[in-house]
Design brief:
9 helices; globular; two-stranded antiparallel sheet; 12 strands; eight-stranded parallel barrel; TIM Barrel; 241 residues
Amino acid sequence: MLIIPALNLKNGNVVRLRQGDPQNTVFYSDDPLAVARRFVEMGVRRLSVHDVDSLIGGGFPHMEIATRIAESTGVEVQYGAAIDGAVPLHEALEQPFVLIELRADRIAGTELLREALRHDAPRLALRLDVRDGRLDLKSPERASSADPVALARELVEAGARRLIFSDLNRDGMLGGPNYAGLRALLHVIDVPVMVAGGVAHHDHIRNLERLGAEGVIIGKALYTGDLSLKGHIDENGAWRR
């Protein structure tokens, strides 16, 4: 199972989010490249770089930084942003990112998503940001509250090759991931699923691996020191059993 540290970028800085709220952040560093290199020194082979400003109408100012991280460190980068237009999506796909994380709440049911899955599905990961067990869909075609399991099945049937299950209630809280939510998804779909939210201990990682998660995206616990990766990552960036 891949270990994927999260770099959440806001105003050029690395920040920590609390429960997925882009307005509720804690500053960590003003040097994203230095932070990325520290993770690489731990043996990490993939990073999740998230453009927080894209959630609050700030465009996609950190796509360039994410590109520099990928080019200067040599590790895989998956870039996440609130992309809801063809132009920024095509621009992101032109960068050296192994994956583009698309927020399902922004583009579910849209022609943009249908076209993207037809042409670029292997490089896309659809992110299910769940709060209180539901997704609040914001796309014009689907403004409603959705069951994540039903939406996951719909996305996979439409051609999605990979999902990210993110429980916002647990994000930044260090209380453990949503195992039940992951089990429910894996029961109805047969594509790889990454997990984010709540991971704070080695046991959390072991449990996610047993359940069958493809990877785990970890944020706060790595920045606070609650979780150490030293000696626990193999040469491929996966959890060392």
